[in-house]
């Protein structure tokens, strides 16, 4: 079984204190950072880009950075994100065509990053079935991308179960949106192992206990 990894999303943190907030959650035991990049086009919101991530990397060496690219032209930012110190480039199937998706995957690998491929709630998991052997992580969205603090869609667990059944030990399955100490049980039973949690961890007064508990639930 793949080890459970907890990756806080800093989207709903005080972004003027990005490095401090990130360090606080890492000191509380988080395994990696999930950085939400939005372009106001693929999703109706704007966040940060590679210049900010590069500054964050200077403050936080070594930690695994997962850039969740909620952008319309994911091919555009591959080299910039690699240069900013990103370890995993997670882009969306819905932002690609069947012609360019293989190219995007190849370019991410050439830039020495792990390949994450995300799907929105409305996209069936079978749409990415033939790509899974080429990628490192599948990201199953459990909210419509764009905003933190939304309600977890438990119906998405069918996708996770299907993936875990077909790729028992190989594939990292990341799950993102509305995950807290209540909803994480569904994710654990379905077979997810990379857990993104935003507002629940940001708002928590005892992030260290919560992260530890989340990891135990996933690893059980
Ligand atoms: C949604 C983002 C998520 C989300 C996580 O567009 O990709 O990373 O903000 O935050 P919570 O856990 O608050 O849903
Ligand atoms: Zn995200």
UniProtKB/TrEMBL annotation:
Pfam annotation, one family: Ribul_P_3_epim
Family: Belongs to the ribulose-phosphate 3-epimerase family.
Name of this protein: Ribulose-phosphate 3-epimerase
Active site (catalytic residues): 36, 176
Keywords, ordered alphabetically: Carbohydrate metabolism, Cobalt, Isomerase, Manganese, Metal-binding, Zinc
InterPro entries: Aldolase_TIM (IPR013785), Ribul_P_3_epim (IPR026019), Ribul_P_3_epim-like (IPR000056), RibuloseP-bd_barrel (IPR011060)
NCBIfam families, per database record: PRK05581.1-4, rpe
Cofactor binding note from Swiss-Prot or TrEMBL: Binds 1 divalent metal cation per subunit.
GO molecular function, one term: metal ion binding
One of the protein's GO biological processes: carbohydrate metabolic process
Source organism, top-level taxon: Eukaryota
Catalyzed reactions: D-ribulose 5-phosphate = D-xylulose 5-phosphate
EC nos: 5.1.3.1
Cofactor: Co(2+); a divalent metal cation; Fe(2+); Mn(2+)
UniProt keyword annotation of Manganese present: yes
Class in the EC hierarchy, top level: isomerase
Residues reported in the UniProt entry to bind substrate: 9, 68, 146-149, 178, 198-199
Binding site for a divalent metal cation: 34, 36, 68, 176
Keyword Isomerase: yes
């Amino acid at each position: 079984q793949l080890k459970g990894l907890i990756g806080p999303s800093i989207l709903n943190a005080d972004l003027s204190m990005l490095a401090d907030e990130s360090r606080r959650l890492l000191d509380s035991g988080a395994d990696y950072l999930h950085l939400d990049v939005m372009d106001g086009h693929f999703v109706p919101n704007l966040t940060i880009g590679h210049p900010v991530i590069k500054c964050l990397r200077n403050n936080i060496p070594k930690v695994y950075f997962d850039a969740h690219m909620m952008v319309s032209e994911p091919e555009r930012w591959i080299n910039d994100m690699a240069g900013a110190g990103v370890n995993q480039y997670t882009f969306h199937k819905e932002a690609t065509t069947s012609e360019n998706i293989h190219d995007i995957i190849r370019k991410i690998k050439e830039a020495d990053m792990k390949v994450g491929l995300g799907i929105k709630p409305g996209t069936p998991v079978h749409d990415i079935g033939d790509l899974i052997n080429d990628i490192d992580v599948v990201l199953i969205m459990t909210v419509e991308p764009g905003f933190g603090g939304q309600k977890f869609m438990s119906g998405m667990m069918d996708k996770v179960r299907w993936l875990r059944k077909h790729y028992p030990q190989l594939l990292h399955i990341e799950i993102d949106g509305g995950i807290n100490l209540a909803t994480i049980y569904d994710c654990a039973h379905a077979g997810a192992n990379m857990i993104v949690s935003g507002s629940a961890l940001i708002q928590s007064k005892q992030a260290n206990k919560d992260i530890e508990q989340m990891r135990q639930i996933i690893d059980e």
